[in-house]
Amino acid sequence: MLIHERSASEPLSSELTSETVYQQRRDLLKAAGLFGTAAFFSPVLLAAPAAYSPAADRGNVPRYLRDKLRLRKAGNNPTGEPLTPFDVVSTYNNFYEFGLDKSDPAANAQAMRLEPWSVRIDGECRKPGTYTLEDVLKPHALEDRIYRFRCVEAWSMVVPWLGFSLADLVRRFEPTSKARFIEFTTLQDPQQMPGQRTRNLRWPYVEGLRMDEAMHPLALMAVGVYGRSLPPQNGAPLRLVVPWKYGFKSIKSIVRIRFTETAPQTTWATMAPEEYGFFANVNPAVDHPRWTQARERRLPATLFNPNWRDTLPFNGYASEVAGLYRGLNLKRYF
Ligand SMILES: Nc1nc2c(c(=O)[nH]1)N[C@H]1C(S)=C(S)[C@@H](COP(=O)(O)O)O[C@H]1N2
Ligand SMILES: [Mo]
Questions:
Q1: Confidence label for 26 from pLDDT (cuts 50, 70 and 90)
Q2: In this structure, is residue 332 part of a structural domain?
Q3: Which residues are near ligand 2, the ion (C-beta closer than 5 Å)?
Q4: Going by fewer Cβ within 10 Å, which terminus of the chain is more open, N or C?
């Protein structure tokens, strides 16, 4: 599975400025005794947290989405933990299509065209086709889902997403008995996405789930956050959120959903299979080759309060999802 032959023109994963290099920079700072100073002197992390308030949507949110957002079902906070402020959620991002630094997506994604948007559904299903986003969303009521969100880089947030269960979407397309996996693809448009004019990743970004993972009620299709539509930097207009897996599984700005018999060739697992597995379940017992996963920094973190905490198995969702992996060697599958 996931065998990838590197062509001569492709960068080695070790050459990438990426999650990987970001962490190397951190490791260097740490070695130099600078960790906790330089790494935390980010204007974003030192900014005063915003109070919980649904920030105003941009004027161009289409009517059908605006109406749905208004009718959303408010949710409780099952994490019992404070929310990461909207300011942090929307300015500390990974979205390599818009650049590698955490502040790049917020800086570069604002002009992203979100309308019209359509999603191509294909592969092993009885209802393939190209659906407008309005059609995709039509039967689904939106609800708040407050989840912990854990990046493989060892930071985490608590985010009030807004969306609906992926399972409910999947059922509508009537996957055949051959559909064992689902592949998701992000928009490819180098004109709008400056990162796609580089070879930082293989474009378009692809992620995937096993069908039973996709059908788990925690797997979320998100269209909003903090009571409003998704900011472009958070993966507007439609993204996946899989709270028990490392953040890179939660693919943004989806334009294609394909049902497959075999495991999809996902971006990170293909580029650096020794670092990023297909399952990528949050697991404190399996370290990244270059850093520990036993702890994580909960954002917002500051110089004086780096806010380290223990990583939870399956990011705290073990009682819900561990059964999906019974009999699997989780050490091996990372
Ligand atoms: N298309 C695409 N999806 C993506 C990424 C990306 O670079 N491109 N980054 C992933 C990573 S590594 C993380 S941690 C989350 C970050 O989501 P957020 O910026 O909304 O917190 O998005 C994931 N989805
Ligand atoms: Mo990530």
A1: very low
A2: no
A3: 94, 151, 247-248
A4: N
